[in-house]
């Protein structure tokens, strides 16, 4: 899939664990792993909003499009 999820980069910049991130966003750590590993087929805008609020970033900081 040409969409790359950069949650791990943002977590590393903020020195935040997956568990803390999951709790603050309201996701399970398993669902965060699905997002981080690029296995998610979709993401709700409300989830994207929560991730951006927790990480204090823009959607473009979390998602990147590349050609196949």
Q: What features would you describe in this structure?
A:
This protein has a two-stranded antiparallel sheet. It has 68 residues and is mainly alpha-helical. Helix content is 57%, strand content 9%. The chain has helices spanning 7-14, 18-25, 29-36, 45-55, 59-62; strands at residues 3-5, 63-65. It contains five helices and two strands, in the order βαααααβ. The mean pLDDT is 94.
In short:
The protein is mainly alpha-helical. The protein has helices at residues 7-14, 18-25, 29-36, 45-55, 59-62; strands at 3-5, 63-65.
Describe this protein with a few key phrases.
Lambda_DNA-bd_dom_sf; Cro/C1-type_HTH; two-stranded antiparallel ribbon; mainly alpha; 5 helices; globular; 2 strands; Helix-turn-helix transcriptional regulator; 68 residues
Overall pLDDT metric: 94
N→C terminal distance:
7 Å
* Cross-sheet strand order for the largest sheet: 1-2
Record field, number of beta strands: 2
Shape: globular
Low-confidence stretches: none
Count every helix, treating DSSP H or I runs of 4 or more residues as helices: 5
Q: What is the element string, with H for helices and E for strands? A: EHHHHHE
Which class best fits the helix and strand makeup? Answer: mainly alpha
Give the helix proportion (percent range). Answer: 55-70%
Beta content:
5-15%
Calculate Rg over CA atoms: 11 Å
Major beta sheet summary: 2 strands, antiparallel
């Amino acid at each position: 899939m040409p969409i790359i999820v950069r949650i791990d980069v943002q977590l590393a910049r903020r020195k935040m664990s997956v568990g803390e991130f999951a709790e603050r966003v309201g996701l399970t750590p398993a669902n965060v792993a699905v997002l981080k590993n690029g296995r998610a087929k979709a993401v709700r805008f409300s989830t994207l909003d929560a991730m951006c609020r927790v990480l204090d970033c823009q959607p473009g900081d979390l998602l990147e499009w590349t050609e196949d």
